[in-house]
Fold:
Amino acid sequence: MKPRLSLKQSISLTYILLAVIVAGAFSLVSYISVEVIEEQVIDARLSKMADRLIELQPGGRMPDAPPDIRFMIDDRIPAELRQLPAGSHEVGLGNRHVHVLLRDHGSSRYAVVQEVDELEHTELVILLSLAIGFAVSLLLAAVLGVVCAKRIIAPVAALAEAVGRNAGPTELPSLSAQDEIGILARAFAKRTDELQQFLQRERLFTGDVSHELRTPLTIMLGAAEVLTAQLADRPAQLATAERIRRVAAEAAQGVSALLLLARVPESLDAPRIVLNSIIKSEIERCRPLLHGKPVECRLDWSEEVSVHVRPELAGIVIGNLLRNACRHTEQGQVLVQLAAGRLVIEDTGSGIPQKVRERLFERFVHGDDLPAHEGTGLGLSIVKRVVDHVGWDVRLEIPQAGGTRFVLTFPIVRDS
Structure:
């Protein structure tokens, strides 16, 4: 697809095209006028000279003539001119360019010859002047187009810059202008104000709900831990208690992450943590999901990898991806590969249907043919929100052998 011109380029090009049309039309009219005037003036002059010659010649007299005009009669007319029909002609005579008027009167032929070399030179000067004027017009049009485009685009560029840096509705430029830029600025201000109010309401709601849930979840988690300890000699009830404890822990972790997400990224501190320990902790929490399955959870790393991030947020991302891999893998392995700036979580499970891959990180999107699973989980949409919040990146890859591969990339932390 051919790229469209920018507004500034379009305005400049419009000025240039207008100059081409106007200057071209003016030059063409001027050239035609010069040609017409030249023909009419020369023909009229030569016609008067011929009348005077025919009038005076019977008396043996010749009219006075300017230096560039010659009179010829009968045999004195060169052969190359005698063979021309009566009338006005522009021909070459020797090494000179002449304009000749031939007229027959009685039995004689009369010729009035005017050298037009000087006229041709004058015409060339005029044409050169028209060409220079045309070129200067284009140059001036280009300069004027660029200057006007900058002045016209400047308010739009200032408005775009203000919107890009999330300026407040009252900080947008051109709000008081009465032209189209002012209308656009006021529309942006209104929309920006609505979006900021919406984001503020969402942030407050998320923070309030998360805050209210922390206390009951903490109580549930403590009670589940006590119940697990009391049912150590009852394996059947112990599994249920452990399941309650695990789900409560996941919910508590999710609430903590939501509280952090309710804050703007710039206000979050990002301590340096070792990602290896977070991964080990999340794998241990996912072990019960692999119970009774012929699935191996394998770690592959050769060094400790440090990142600047809140551990709660890193745990939410890694834990959610690991739980998905463990829940949807019935046999084979779950492979976790960690390197500087990159974490890969790959499984040999059922994979993700083609129809939902492009929308996988959207809210409420899931594969219809994926098996149901227990646990709350935050979902991949929350994973996407977290990685965007902390400046990481996540993408889905499909291994050739089947299954699913999620690749997390993050800034590398160098040892000082």
User: Anything to note?
Assistant: The chain has three domains: 7-141, 167-263, 268-416. Residues 367-377 have pLDDT under 50 and may be disordered. The radius of gyration is 46 Å.
